[in-house]
Amino acid sequence: MTRRIAFLASGTDDSSSALQALEAAHGRCKPEEADILVALGGDGFMLQTLHRHGALGKPVFGMKLGTVGFLMNHYRADDLLERLERAEPAVLRPLAMEAQTESGATVHSLAYNEVSLLRQTRQAAHLRIDLNGQPRLDELICDGVMVATPAGSTAYNFSASGPILPLGANVVALTPIAPFRPRRWRGAVLKAGTEVRFKVLDPYKRPVSATADSHEVRDVVEVAIREATDRTVTLLFDPEHNLEERILSEQFVA
């Protein structure tokens, strides 16, 4: 079966060279007209591709030509069509963030990895956490806190001592970053449909920013996070190196 492929490159020398070679072999196609998107770069470029083209609903096959490639397959150009035919899908549902700022603005964004709140100054953030409208933690004093998806749980979340979540487990991780009080609170694993709401308790003296993947909003006073109900994306992986196996393997790395 003939597939229309749109090749997208991160702009590095390696990815640009690969783009030229692949388009010479398979033709050039716009993302809107393609059956499959092939992203050439690292994980950062994959996230950029999902944010830019995720609404098209086209499956994305990534090939690593960047620094980090957890969401990517190995780069090989000679057997691409066969790999696409054999590729296994991983369906991801992003987080939807709604942030209210000190100026009264409301900012919406999506996150395929995590939404994180971080202190903007040398002073620790003071936050309240509500789950589904019910107060759960009256005051968290910390450098920050995040909500991570299973696909993102091996990234920043894991570096902050959060749990690695199995793909398809229908849960998210709520993980503090350098918590000071309560000192022993290590976070929680929540059902994916839970609404997590953070209230900044002292936004003027202790300002906080919110970041959905790479989209930062500064001087937030309240942030609500929930699983997006109207958006999914499909990533394609080589069968021998699929995303579920990668997430599992990360739990056994010393």
Poorly predicted parts: none
Cα end-to-end separation = 43 Å
CATH superfamily of the largest domain: Probable inorganic polyphosphate/atp-NAD kinase, domain 2
Top-tier CATH class of the largest domain: Mainly Beta
By CATH, the topology of the largest domain is: Tumour Suppressor Smad4
In DSSP terms (H or I, runs of 4 or more residues), the helix count works out at 5
Order of helices and strands: EHEHEHEEEEEEHEEEEEEEH
| Average pLDDT rating | 94
Strand content: 35-45%
Any guess at the CATH architecture of the largest domain? Answer: Sandwich
Overall geometry: elongated
User: What number of structural domains do the residues give?
Assistant: 2
Give the biggest sheet. Answer: 11 strands, antiparallel
Number of strands: 16
Based on helices, strands and strand pairing, what is the structural class?
alpha+beta
The radius of gyration computed from the alpha-carbon positions, rounded to a whole number of angstroms, is 19 Å
What is the helix content? 10-25%
Short description:
NAD(+) binds at residues 43-44, 113-114, 143, 151, 154-159, 178. The protein has 254 residues and is α+β, with helices and mostly antiparallel strands. The chain has helices at 13-26, 43-53, 80-86, 156-159, 243-250, and strands at residues 5-9, 36-41, 60-64, 88-92, 95-101, 106-111, 114-119, 125-131, 134-148, 171-181, 188-191, 196-200, 208-212, 215-217, 220-227, 233-237.
What labels would you give this structure?
single chain; 254 residues; alpha+beta; Rossmann fold; Tumour Suppressor Smad4; kinase; nucleotide-binding; NAD+ kinase activity; EC 2.7.1.23; NAD kinase
